[in-house]
Specification:
The complex is a heterodimer of chains A (661) and B (146). Chain A is of the alpha+beta class. Chain A is built from 21 helices and 11 strands. In chain A, the strands form 2 sheets. In chain A, strands 3, 4, 5, 6, 7 and 8 form a 6-stranded antiparallel sheet that branches. Chain A starts with a helix and ends with a helix. Chain B is an alpha+beta fold. Classes of the chains: A alpha+beta (661), B alpha+beta (146). Chains A and B meet through helix 13, strand 1, helix 14, strand 2 and strand 8 of A and helix 1, strand 1 and helix 3 of B. Strand 1 of chain A pairs antiparallel with strand 1 (33-37) of chain B.
Chain lengths: 661, 146
């Protein structure tokens, strides 16, 4: 009964989304206020119905109702409760349901919080949002119904793929989808602006908070995914340039560009058409990502979903929305008033440069991701594009961008002074150079590259701090005044500085791990020791262990510091999940300061030893801590007074003009 | 500089950057990608020693020999041919005889494949996609679930 209710709610949500497409749009085009007003309650009800459907599926998982095919294939009655719940979105059908849940959530949020938008704009935005929703509801109902029944019902389920039974994977998809799908709002705003044939600085102000929300979540989602792959797959890598990772990275790069171009549009009224195009492209990349992941066209460590028939459907959705939006753009963008010109050396100029670098970086990732597919389709040859390709293409482009970052916030709007900005950054540059030189003196391996990278990372960190220090007037006024000014700075200033600082920290982590990590592979017998970095590991024993739905051999490795004191014990194990007879490696990780020791177990050898792989990962935690700092920066920007107070004030001025299309 | 000249120089700069990025991309596509081969392909087309390729197939039954420390040698085979492989490192969890595998590395002068990475996918039913496609072409593929 519960399942049928869920199924029914999903069909109802599809019907509601169709109403959401037609009614407000017709109202907006004919100027019928009553029809326009239907958009809000319909969007909210549509979300409520989707939430009901989702809740029904979650309940089926919680109760282990194996008469539902989806639950039978992906759950097990012995599975811990947390993973029963999170298993809901650990499979294709469930994750698509989560996708539309978040899509309708954003539609409902636009309906609930967009009361200050011009009525026609809000109605059109909701209509476009409804179109995306309708397409994906249809996709779920036609090809991926999570509520399909199985008769007779089996007694036991097949269990969730064990590597997905992890807290990281519990959080990763919702975060990622909140980001991915969050950009749908920017897309809807862009398409609505094209339909209305009207765009101004206020538009950028309305779109910016949605971009920020999506960007913050996407940053978190990508970082979480990277962290999960790092500790769960047991290979010790944090990024594989896997097509599925790229699929989430491209919208992030484009979204970051959008975040910056929207500032120019909001402050200076320039870059209007470009910002519009970026809004469309960012969500198009999200859709492309969904297609790549969900269609199974890719060979990938993440390819859990492989059903080509679904691919055709998503491809049709992809072509319709991307093609439709770009065609609309080509047709209507001419009629939009172009923005003003500006001096190249200025804040605007710096942000344009940022956009040039970021979109080029996005393009290199796109080429690297799609090239193997294109080659296979054309010649039938199978090739792999991996790290060497991206190191050579994405690497330099991004490095140039990083060098330029600290200059941006120091340049004035309209007409900046590059020389003065450089002068003010002298201190930051000196400190960064010092960090690089110290790295060169104290580290020997790969030193030149490591020193350059570490210098670059510190350049970002000190550049961000310089910006704050200058704004607060540190050194020019008394420390008390400076502190008061620092606290009193607009939150967006803190946000910018923190986001750039976070970028610096992540860069430092990546550089340190890539250039300075050490890897030891050896066979150890109980009692043997090995030196790694400044620590000594002893292999004590391999002891069998039993978990709720697995058995494991646990290797115990006490860690000693240089003085011979035992400071930690690393447990690394090889697990066998009994339901699927599937082995996994559970890496043993010990965090020491910001660095980590990472131990993976291999096979047992005939003479009673075991193959062990030990990494020393210097500053590795900074990769994800930096992302966290970026998220905090984005959130602070979101809380800026300008967006909270300024946004509602603007529409009253804009409304009369907007009413006449 | 006049306004027009300024604008032109900016556009030239941007185009120069894009041109450099494009050139780099084309170079990298030519040099930094690796082709995928099955053992049958290796017999037909000689891959020069030192060129980075991916080799996929089934781990031949009875071919896995563990050597000193973490060195392992095995053979990757399909219905037509077999290629000896040596690898130093940890084998993935799902590596076993008769299972699909993708290795990446180079051939040495003697025709042995020296792998620096070995991938076996994380699903019992899942065969690496390239391997499955090629085995289908050779007509020996059976779907694992049916």
């Amino acid at each position: 009964m519960m399942i049928e209710t869920g199924h029914f709610a999903l069909v109802l949500a599809f019907a509601l989304s169709l109403a959401q497409v037609v009614l407000p749009l017709v109202g907006a085009r004919t100027g019928d206020a009553r029809l326009m007003a239907t958009g809000r309650p319909v969007a909210i009800t549509c979300f409520a119905m989707t939430a009901l459907a989702f809740a029904a599926l979650v309940m089926a998982y919680v109760l282990s109702d194996f008469s539902v095919v989806n639950v039978f294939e992906n759950s097990h009655s012995q599975k811990p409760m947390l993973y029963k719940v999170t298993g809901t979105w650990g499979n294709h059908e469930g994750s698509m349901l989560l996708w539309v849940l978040i899509l309708t959530l954003f539609g409902a949020l636009v309906a609930a919080f967009g009361r200050n938008l011009p009525a026609t704009l809000q109605a059109t935005v909701l209509s476009v949002q409804g179109m995306v929703g309708a397409a994906f509801f249809l996709f779920i109902l036609m090809t991926s119904n999570p509520f399909a029944r199985l008769n007779p019902a089996p007694i036991e389920g097949r269990d969730l793929n064990p590597i997905l039974q992890d807290i990281g994977l519990a959080i990763h998809p919702p975060l990622l989808y909140l980001g991915y799908v969050g950009f749908s709002v920017c897309f809807s705003f862009a398409v609505a602006a094209l339909i209305e044939g009207r765009i101004d600085a206020a538009w950028a102000r309305w779109v910016r908070p949605w971009t920020l929300v999506a960007w913050v979540f996407l940053t978190g989602g990508i970082a979480m995914g990277s962290f999960w792959a790092y500790y769960e797959l047991g290979w010790g890598g944090f990024w594989f340039w896997d097509p599925v990772e790229n699929a989430s990275f491209m919208p992030w790069l484009a979204g970051t560009a959008l975040l910056h171009s929207a500032i120019v549009m909001e402050k200076r009224g320039a870059l209007k058409i470009w910002t519009l195009l970026l809004s469309i492209l960012t969500f198009s990349l999200s859709l492309l990502g969904t297609f790549l992941v969900r269609s199974g066209v890719l060979t990938s460590v993440h390819a859990f979903a492989s059903d080509p028939s679904r691919g055709v459907f998503i491809l049709a959705i992809l072509v319709f929305f991307i093609g439709g939006a770009l065609a609309l753009f080509a047709w209507r963008s001419q009629s939009l008033a172009p923005g003003g010109l500006f001096h190249p050396i200025s804040r605007e100029g710096a942000l344009v440069l940022n956009n040039l670098f970021l979109s080029t970086a996005t393009a290199t990732v796109l080429v690297g991701t799609l090239y193997p597919l294109a080659i296979e389709a054309v010649t039938g040859d199978k090739i792999s594009v991996g790290e060497p390709f991206f190191n050579l293409t994405f690497g330099p482009v991004f490095a140039v961008l990083l060098v330029a970052v600290p200059f941006g916030p120091l340049l004035a709007w309209k007409r900046g002074d590059l020389f003065a900005a450089a002068q003010r950054l002298t201190m930051a540059f000196a400190l960064a150079a010092l960090a690089g030189i110290l790295a060169l003196l104290f580290l020997d391996r790969n030193a030149a590259l490591a020193a350059l990278g570490i210098g670059l990372a510190f350049w970002l960190v000190f550049g961000a701090l310089t910006d704050l220090a200058l704004r607060a007037g540190i050194g020019k006024v008394t420390p008390r005044t400076a502190l008061r000014r620092l606290v009193g700075l607009p939150r967006s200033a803190h946000g910018t500085a923190l986001a750039h600082l976070g970028l610096g920290l992540s860069t430092l982590g990546v550089v340190a791990v890539v250039t300075l990590q050490t890897e030891t592979i050896l066979t150890m017998k109980p009692g043997e020791t090995v030196d790694v970095a400044d620590y000594t590991l002893r292999f004590e024993a391999l002891s069998p262990h039993r978990g709720p739905n697995y058995t494991e051999d646990q290797g115990i490795f006490p860690v000693f510091n240089a003085d011979g004191d035992r400071i930690a014990t690393i447990m690394s194990s090889k697990r066998l999940y009994t339901a699927r007879r599937m082995p996994t490696t559970e890496a043993g990780i010990e965090t020491l300061g910001l660095s980590q020791l990472y131990v993976s177990l291999g096979d047992e050898t005939d003479d009673g030893g075991v193959v062990v792989r030990i990494w020393w990962k210097p500053l590795v935690t900074l990769i994800w801590l930096g992302a966290l700092v970026m998220m905090i920066g984005g959130t602070l920007s979101l809380a800026d007074r300008r967006l909270r107070v300024g946004a509602p004030a603007r529409p009253r001025k804009a409304e009369p003009a907007a009413a006449a299309p | 500089m006049t306004r027009k000249q300024k604008r032109l120089s900016i556009i030239a700069g941007a185009l120069g950057f894009l041109g450099a990025a494009t050139a780099l991309t084309f170079y990298a596509l030519g040099q930094k990608t690796s082709y995928f081969y099955m053992p049958a392909d290796i017999a037909n087309a000689a891959v020069p020693p030192g060129q980075r390729v991916r080799l996929g197939g089934l781990v031949e039954d009875g071919s896995v020999v563990r050597g000193q420390g973490s060195q392992v040698s095995f053979a990757v085979a399909d219905t037509e041919n077999r290629v000896p492989v040596v690898y130093v490192g940890l084998l993935p969890d799902l590596f076993r005889e008769g299972q699909g595998v993708v290795t990446e590395g180079t051939f040495d002068a003697g025709g042995t494949f020296v792998a620096d990475s070995v991938l076996a996918k994380h699903d019992e039913n899942y065969m690496p996609k390239e391997v499955a496609d090629s085995l289908k072409e050779q007509g020996v593929w059976q779907h694992a679930q049916e």
